[in-house]
Amino acid sequence: MMTFAPSKRNMAHVNGPAKQPKSSKTSRHPKELLIEKAAALQCELRDASFALHMDEEDPLRTFREKFHYPKMKDLPFTDPELIVADEESVYLCGNSLGLEPKSTRHYVEKELNKWSKFGVCGHTEQLHPEGDLPWAFCDDPLTLLSAPIVGASEEEIGYMNGLTVNLHFLFVSFYVPTPQRYKIIMEAKAFPSDHYMVESQLRYHGYDPKDAMICMEPRQGEKTLRTQDIVDRIEKEGDSIALVFFSGVQYYTGQLFDMAAITQAGHKKGCIVGFDLAHAVGNVPLHLHAWDVDFAAWCTYKVRHNTTRIIQLLAATSSITQGFLGDLRLILLFCILYKPCELTIPFRKFFTMISR
């Protein structure tokens, strides 16, 4: 998973007023644009002719050929009488796991061959004439490639662990409650693992989630949260809120949260602001550095089409990352080179010491 932590802002908003980052620009809903397009073509939005026209205009239309699509006959729970066995499925599960790129097998076999030929030397030695990186440093070029996707600089991003593990790591450093400021505000139906993670962090610090978790729900009869309601709640209870933590895109409703506005509202009240971008990265435009987001974490196996369980990402804005990610890499290298039983300092305590 990947994480983000900022590098240039000095965290003054934690104890005092912060600069006011610009909110994201409002834009028209894509549905409105599509309706206009269909009208110009003198057809309906649901017409097959409109879909075919949009396919022809799509500059990424050839990318479909780069992925494997499960055949109907190979999928479980299908009725043979209702399907065309050799037909490719219509895959709408990219929010859970992206399709396998056709090039994946080549690259995996390449590394397996390197393992069989060179063994342990593959960790640290460049052994292929085409210049692939040793395994211990394989994440180095990935941060450069990921930076523009999330609107961050390379030094603000780190590849490591899994999503929930990274969120725990980030909360260790960014959730620093006091008797007066200890609450965490988030959406009521966040991804379950996020909800459990927040509960466990609160309990670790001795707080009851029933008191310390502010779980925002949509207004009665509505499906999504209004940005103004989030901002108003932060303004109302901000003096008791230590951390604002929302999804970038809500996994169940598909709501795209106004991260810039939420970040600005949180900083105005002296709160730390972070996001789980698992369903947002590669899906919507992100500008973490410009929005002044304190931290974020995301994965790469959904709409970015990397394999499940691939190493994930975290990030923090640059003034924080100068110590945060550098020290974190030292810990990870230490864990790679030495057996877990040789770690004599409790990991959580050690991480907390070096990351603050």
Task: Describe the protein in words.
There is one protein chain. 37% of the residues lie in helices and 11% in strands. With 356 residues, it is of the alpha/beta class. Strands 1, 2, 3, 4, 5, 6, 7 and 8 form an 8-stranded mixed beta sheet that branches. The longest helix has 20 residues, at 318-337. It is globular, with a radius of gyration of 23 Å. Mean pLDDT is 80; it is low at 8-25, 307-311 and 318-356.
Defining traits:
37% helix, disordered C terminus, 356 residues, alpha/beta, 11% strand, globular
Count of helical stretches: 12
Strand content: 5-15%
Low-pLDDT parts are 8-25, 307-311, 318-356
First CA to last CA: what distance? 21 Å
Overall helicity = 25-40%
E-strand count? 8
Shape category: globular
> What's the order of the H and E elements?
EHHHHEHEHHEHEHEHEEHH
Q: Major beta sheet, specifics?
A: 8 strands, mixed
Radius of gyration: 23 Å
- pLDDT average, as an integer? 80
Structural class: alpha/beta
Brief summary of the model shown:
It contains twelve helices and eight strands. The chain is an alpha/beta fold and 356 residues long.
Topology:
Blueprint: E1 2-6, H1 30-40, H2 48-57, H3 104-118, H4 140-150, E2 157-159, H5 163-174, E3 183-187, H6 192-204, H7 209-212, E4 213-216, H8 227-237, E5 241-247, H9 259-268, E6 272-276, H10 288-291, E7 295-298, E8 313-317, H11 318-337, H12 347-355
Parallel strand pairs: 1-8, 3-4, 3-5, 5-6, 6-7
Antiparallel strand pairs: 1-2, 1-7, 2-8, 7-8
Helix pairs in contact: 5-6, 8-9
